Amino acid sequence: MKDVLIDFFAIEDDRGALVALEQFKNIPFEIKRVYYIYGNKQNLARGFHAHRDLQQILICVSGSCNVILDNGKEKHKYILNKPNQGLLVNKVIWREMLEFSDDCIILVLASNYYDENDYIRDYDKFMETANRV
To answer: What is the reported pTM?
Structure first.
């Protein structure tokens, strides 16, 4: 699987740090939706789906979690624990998010608006789609 971790430039001084996210500059797509995930106090796994056309960047702005990406041929586990690093999740990539810290907040940048028809929620159907790509 191609390198999907993106290190964002952080401007830092005694007051803290600032990271700018800009479409087509350090984000490789037009940003049409932004959302965040937090409050997983029971540490329940999330995800378990892929998207036909959507691209996303996952940024753990607080705490940590693990993400497993699966392209149908290989799986990789990534630890998200740096607010200046994002994980690019391309089209037709199965994702599973797990092992959330209590303070975990994940910011997600998406290349399109929400569309339930874009989701692949069954792993066997995902594998059929991935084998055609």
So the answer is: 0.94
